[in-house]
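I had to read the description of the data format several times before I understood it. In essence, backbone conformation is discretised, so a fold becomes a row of integers matching the chain in length. I therefore recommend that a typical entry be quoted early in the introduction. For illustration, here is how one protein appears when written out as sequence plus structure tokens.

***
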Amino acid sequence: MSPPVLELRNVTKRFGSVVAAGDISLSVDQGEFFALLGPSGSGKTTMLRIIAGLETPDEGAVLINGQDVTALPPYARGVGMVFQNFLLFPHKKVGENIIFPLRMQGRSKAEQGERLEWALDLLRLDGLSDRYPHQLSGGQQQRVALARGLISRPALLLLDEPLANLDRELRKEMEVEVRRYQVELDIPFIYVTHNQEEALTMSDRIAVMNHGRFEQVAPKLEVYTHPTSHFVAGFVGHSNRLSGRLSAVSGEQGTLDWQGTSLVVPVPEGTAVGEEIECFIKCEKMRIVTPGSTPSADENRIAGSLRDIIFKGSTADYLVATDNGAELTVSETSEIMQLSRNDRLEVTWPVATGACFPITRDTES
């Protein structure tokens, strides 16, 4: 059995008293699109720089295809990298920008020409080789940066928020393209982003980072639907937060007293009656129903009034002021019914839906 393309073994990196990476271990296999997702300052870019050889870990090891490369410089690791700001040479033409890594490696002109032709074709840059970066659109500049990262056919490609400076529509288009390139090349992409939509759109697996540590590493659907920590539940997806005290527990379900309303929720293992918990219910799991309609036994339901509608095209966020003094956001189709501000309605969702966690001092901070 071949080793993983990338392996991190107990990697730790400190900057003074700040732990940017704390005892991180990870394996990434051939052909995998892996996302490092987290807020600013979570340590994800530091991890990418350690893999690239731009930072040296204080402890631990970096292996690529089974070889310990911890002490090797970036150019000797067989790794490509694409940066947020593209970092194209403004005075060099597109072709010169793309083959720059090959020149640094001392490759022959024949090989440079062959690989340039391959990269231009792959990235749909035919006819642009003699242009300068300022003559290109943002999407074209991004593809040039990708071509430069891929021209040496690296063992893996590292991408540090490469779409962050693109407008929304172009970013959506490039998300699909970057994923297509990765599938065609069948090499691992390690993609750093703070944008959960990017991570969920493109990746196979996601590591959610917080304060230099992995909160959860799992396939993207699992991270989205079954978060394993309070932080992941709040960071990934759009959820309503309902907190209160458990008045009853039966198996994996419990009764939550939420501002005077009783709800049936999933309970964390080992949680007892009287403990306080916070539950995260995805906005799209909730539905709006007609007031007074007959509730089913397997749903939570609460009455309220419509405060506002945030129209998003085919969907909308319905902001509901509940009768117990809270506010819920319900993501529904924009055509569910003709609603106006202050209309009476009820919000419903299946019992035991969502992810709940004990409220601790760390949670509250």
